[in-house]
Design brief:
The complex is a heterodimer of chains A (about 325) and B (about 260).
Chain A: E1 4-19, H1 23-32, E2 35-50, E3 54-58, H2 65-72, E4 80-85, H3 94-99, E5 101-105, H4 117-128, H5 132-146, H6 161-173, E6 179-183, H7 191-208, E7 211-215, H8 219-225, E8 228-233, E9 236-242, H9 243-250, E10 253-260, E11 272-278, E12 281-287, H10 293-303, E13 306-312, H11 316-328
Parallel strand pairs in A: 3-7, 3-8, 5-6, 6-7
Antiparallel strand pairs in A: 1-2, 1-4, 8-9, 10-12, 10-13, 11-12
Helix pairs in contact in A: 5-6, 9-11
Chain B: H1 2-18, H2 20-49, H3 57-73, H4 78-87, H5 92-95, H6 101-132, H7 140-170, H8 178-188, H9 200-207, H10 216-223, H11 228-259
Helix pairs in contact in B: 1-6, 2-3, 2-6, 3-6, 3-10, 4-7, 7-10, 7-11
The chains are: A alpha/beta (about 325), B mainly alpha (about 260).
The complex binds adenosine-5'-triphosphate (ATP) and magnesium ion (MG).
Adenosine-5'-triphosphate sits at the interface of chains A and B.
């Protein structure tokens, strides 16, 4: 068993929300007699993460991903439950925990708006009290991997989104943290920039053994980076495991797409369901367990004039769609 | 750690010194207010209200000029910094650094004050001297007491600002309470009209509030309206306020951290 880096037990975060009523009278009323309701941002989450893992923490909008990350990084205090990061509670001893963490919130920057990128780094060096040789060594690597050289002397407010994000990733890694939290690090980036960032994450995981927890809506990120997925919805964990297992469990079916030569009447097959039909093109969904593709194809070709066909494996996207579908109905 | 604060201060100074236009507008508006206030006093004295509490027109002119110069130097942006950072959710990035964030904001404001000394206070002094003559202190000793008094004033003002900033952690709906506080300070600190002109009752109450110790105390010392012995007492009162407000801020901050409202994902 690998060393545990993050241990979360029954974590709950309640948000108090004041309902605002519309209109002048309404807003006056809610100012004087606020109506409070409680929303569970995170509702009883437990998991543990071992050293060197890259975990994808995913779920639909409002699932509670950012809230979890904020609690893990000591920014928010949980309503109940316990958190241990590197053996320490971030709420009890924020300063020692954050020294070991690198954090990037994709929509925000920790760089200093008025300073040049390099000056922001220098300030971080002083804040974390990183000694000069270690700093220069790390910076040299980061400059190289993230290609920072062209804009080291540009004021942060003049950086493009992709440049800023690379700057932010470097800033999060300067003090050589052992855990990296990334909340939507690829949001709004073009293919090239995404590629660079994914490479960077793989690289620091491989060379420095950094544990990475990553939230994203880009399933390519997950597919290319993560060995493990934790799926949340409505503040609860709905799946936790290796990607392949989750896909297999959630989307055990495959798809057979058939194109006919001419229209036919009898299209049905007992082991497959038709999920879509568009002119002469028909989509059959079937479970691996019930029937093999070869069988289905031979059955169908006996009664249908098939012109063309293809078999599709479910991908991560199908699996995720399945999760979102089943749990949002609750 | 100190290195980090110094770097923040230095960078704020350099950044502010680079913004030329903001300096022109600030010096310009302050100059207009200065001229208007001084002319107002001149008219009032010309109308024959006579010397109030042995304050001559020259004393009041000096008082007014210095008050405006001080206000351009006392940079206490912490209340706005906190308010906007919370409103936009940007405050999270300050929370995951191993450094106390209020201290960083102080370092930043000190940088702002130092740069204002160079690019706002100095031009204002030059212009004021051209229009009304150099605003000399009454005695050298007064000037020597004026300096520490100003530092303590800044301490009081900054702590008040930080305390108001904390409110934003608890209730966003109230909007920026800083403006309300600023108006109260402007009137009760004697920065526009010295409290000596106010009714007795206001003066009595105000003795027990921190506000008059921010402007009236150092300025009164400068123009010699507060004698040397009284001045030393005043400095002590200022120091007590700094300590009280600091303790209040420390206690408030400890409770606030747990409450932190973070806006947005
Ligand atoms: N400051 C806040 N005050 C009140 N409710 C909040 C606050 N922040 C988040 N919430 C609520 O908590 C829930 C979880 O929000 P969270 O930001 O963690 O979602 P998320 O999984 O990060 O979503 P997204 O994918 O959209 O970023 C949402 O229902 C949200 O409305
Ligand atoms: Mg989020």
């Amino acid at each position: 068993m690998k060393e545990t880096v993050i241990e979360v037990n029954n974590l709950v975060k309640e948000y108090m929300i004041t309902k605002k009523e519309s209109g002048l009278r309404g807003s006056l009323k809610s100012l004087l007699f606020p109506k409070k309701t409680i929303v569970n941002g995170v509702d009883g989450i437990s998991f543990s993460i071992g050293k060197g893992e890259i975990v994808g923490y995913i779920g639909p909008n409002g699932a509670g991903k950012s809230t979890t990350i904020k609690m893990l990084t000591g920014i928010l205090h949980p309503t109940s439950g316990s958190i241990k990061v590197c053996g320490i509670s971030p709420q009890a001893d924020r300063k020692s925990v954050v020294r070991k963490l690198g954090v990037v919130f994709g929509q925000r920057t920790q760089l200093y708006w008025d300073l040049r990128l390099g000056e922001s780094f220098e300030l971080l060096r002083r804040i974390y009290q990183i000694d000069m040789t270690a700093y220069e060594e790390t910076l040299a690597i980061l400059r190289d991997v993230l290609k920072l050289d062209e804009f080291m002397d540009t004021p942060v407010r003049q950086l493009s989104l992709g440049q800023r994000m690379r700057g932010d990733l470097a800033a999060a890694m300067l003090h050589a943290p052992s855990v990296l939290f990334l909340d939507e690090p690829t949001i709004g980036l073009d293919a090239d920039a995404k590629h660079a960032i994914r490479n960077f994450i793989k690289e620091i995981n491989r060379t420095r053994g950094v544990t990475v927890i990553l939230t994203t809506h880009d399933l390519d990120d997950v597919e290319q980076l993560c060995n493990r997925l934790v799926v949340v919805n409505h503040g609860k964990i709905v799946e936790d495991g290796p990607i392949d297992t989750i896909i297999h469990k959630l989307a055990p079916y495959r798809l057979l797409v058939v194109e006919l030569k001419q229209p036919c009447e009898d299209l049905v097959h007992p082991a497959a369901t038709i999920i879509k039909q568009d002119g002469l093109k028909i989509w059959y969904q079937f479970e691996k367990k019930r029937i093999f593709a070869a069988e289905l194809i031979s059955d169908l070709s006996q009664k249908l004039p098939i012109q063309d066909l293809s078999v599709k494996e479910p991908d991560i996207e199908d699996a995720i769609r399945e999760v979102y579908k089943t749990t949002s109905a609750v | 750690m100190l290195q980090a604060y110094w770097y923040i201060t230095k960078m704020r100074m350099l950044t502010n010194l680079a913004y030329r236009f903001e300096v022109f507008t600030s010096v310009g508006t302050n100059l207009i207010i200065m001229l208007a206030s001084v002319f107002l006093w001149q008219t009032a004295y010309g109308g024959g209200i006579g010397n109030v509490q042995s304050l001559s027109l020259q004393d009041l002119t000096t008082y007014t000029i210095l008050s405006i110069i001080l206000s351009s130097m006392f940079v206490c942006d912490v209340q706005n910094t906190i308010y906007y950072k919370i409103r936009e959710g940007q405050i999270v990035t300050d929370f995951y650094r191993p450094i106390p964030l209020l201290a960083c904001y102080l370092a930043d404001d000190i940088g702002g004050s130092l740069s204002s000394l160079a690019n706002k206070a100095l031009p204002l002094i030059v212009f004021a001297s051209l229009f009304f003559g150099i605003p000399w202190p009454s005695f050298l000793l007064n000037f020597l007491l004026f300096i520490p008094s100003c530092l303590l004033s800044y301490g009081i003002l900054w702590l008040l600002s930080a305390l108001v900033g904390l409110i934003a952690f608890w209730v966003m709906e109230l909007g920026n309470m800083g403006m309300v506080k600023d108006s109260i300070v402007r009137v009760l600190s004697g920065s526009i009209v010295p409290l000596w002109f106010f009714p007795e009752s206001v003066q009595t109450v105000s003795k027990f509030l921190p506000f008059q110790y921010t402007y009236q105390t150092p300025l009164g010392i400068y123009i010699g309206n507060i004698g040397t012995k009284e001045a030393l007492t005043a400095l002590a009162v200022q120091a007590v306020w700094v300590i009280l407000l600091f303790l209040l801020l420390a206690a408030g901050w400890k409770r606030t951290k747990k409450k932190t409202l973070i806006q947005g994902g």
